[in-house]
Fold this protein.
Amino acid sequence: MTTKKIGRTLFTRNFIYLTVSVFLISTAFYFLMPTLPVYLSDVLHASKREVGMIIGTYTLAALLVRPVSGYALDTLGRKWILLISMILFSILFFLYPLSTAVLPLLFLRFFHGLNWGASTTAGFTLVVDLVPVEKRGRGIGYFGLSFTVAMSIGPVIGIKVMGDNHFTALFLVAGAVSFLGVLMASLVHFPFFKRPEKSAFSLKMLISKQSLPVSLNILIIAASYGGVITFIALYAKEHGMSAFTGWFFTIMAVGTALTRIFSGSLFDKYGPTWISVLSIISVSGGLLLLAHTPVLTFFLISGFVIGIGFGILFPTLQTMANNVVAPHRRGAANSTFLTGLDLGIGIGSVLTGLLAEPLGLAWTYNAAALLALSGMVFFLVVSLPHYTKYRTEG
């Protein structure tokens, strides 16, 4: 399939196959989010410190592999990076029942994180190749729904499958679902990839300099979000709302999904300026609402408002990151952007933990709201002028 044949249609067979494939592997990934800590505690008798190390190792591995996978995507092509990383990602689910001690599982999670980082970077890069440039914002937004919906239903299904500690069944079902994703990805007709002329490798090739401003922007905003996803259960417990923590994440995912449906169209029609500003205000406002009204109704509404903000902001900034690079640098652009996202969430989680002890979570969420607003200033002063100067139609 050539680029010319992709035409001006968004919902091509290839786009649908790719979106469904990433949805399936993401659903398998989210099976383990609420259930793996239970497995570690009940079966392996891991301490809380060991649980934290194992969960954090996954994120660290994904973070480390993204720049390398971006370079590989730009030099070797998209097809085999995507398929091989997805296949390895799926196989590793079947090794969990064999990991009967903390140390082997630590290594398993590290390798699982490597393949998760590579496959998601490849997916986001390929979708930019597949969608028409004039519909890029919409395409990235719709494609991102695969992660949002998986985030909503994956944990629920995982808990249902686990039932009364049926962990082997959980891992086997997750592996089977992930392999269905591989099958869908194998049906994608990949656009022709022309390998660039050989050049000496350098560290500069791992990072997209043109995409760096907007990647720093998502880092700042994601830092305000990291404390929410990490400490919201504790915050809810402090205010007697533990039973509704799951509802908070579900409602936040609904807000994200609803806005992703139309935010891409707004970007394609009007550009990034006002929708980015409104989305950051939404994130900041949701954090303030969360901090100042710790009652159930506003607790849930704050999740919806925060979800709306990120539902608009993530695909908007990622589209900007891809619009300032040539096609042969899209792998580096997406890896740079996603690295900023991962780093931001990690930094935000650490900062929230450090500030919550002396200040309390409510005041920490106030600080997160101010951090989000500083991201808006960065967007208007740095990211937007850079984007306006270097935007390409390619």
